[in-house]
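TIGR03943 family protein
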Amino acid sequence: MNKINESYSYFSGILLLGFGLLLLAMILSGSLDYYVAPSMHFIVIIGMVFFLLLGLSQIWRSTATAKETHSCNCVAHEETKKGKNSTLLLLFIILVIGFILPDYALSTKMAELKGISYTFPLSDDRLEKNSDFIEEHYTRIAREVEQNEKLIVQDEMFLDVLALLHLRLDSYIGKEIEFTGFVHDDPLLEKGELAIARFAFTCCVADAIGYGFIVQSSEHSDHLKSGWVTVRGVIQTREYEGQLIPQIDVSEMISVYQPELPYVYPTLLTGN
């Protein structure tokens, strides 16, 4: 191995260890949840182990062959050195950015770009193919949320309750509900209406989709345009794009801190 390859192997090993430690830090701090769904964490753990082992292998490989190195001042080696240095520099910049950038949860800003879905997150085709399983699943969800006088929507059940209200809307008209989400002032909605939503994804943040409820509240809509809130209100109905969907008539809207886990995850077959 010549000296250029030896140095390249050593520093690339250091960078691979750095990426492995970055993934380890994200796992231990819980920030991995901002980017990858819990069901995919095992893939990240495998990747972390791979980076650490490969990094150690590269460092050992470079030091074990140090005595065999020889120098060469030819032009071809100089060009190779420049190319490899550029690659290492780029990887180093990416690694530093990964460590210094703060964690950021998708909310109002991303909703302005991607929009929010207010309709049922299950396609008619999947409903037909899995009708028995879906009916059993949402019967269980209904039993859980109906234990109290009002529907208290826990974060992990946000999508389930949204789907339940679409499937059995007539059964819940007039019932009180409480849930937490971020505020989105959707220009497609009417005056006095806001969207209270959460982003959901099945794999990673790249496939995130915003789902939410339309809430009716002239009192709050003028001064609450962003941030996180807990909403208490009564379930009513309205038509949206030719479909009857739930609308919440707000009785109370309280500003809250962003939840520790801002995203929600599907527990059933989701898709368009």
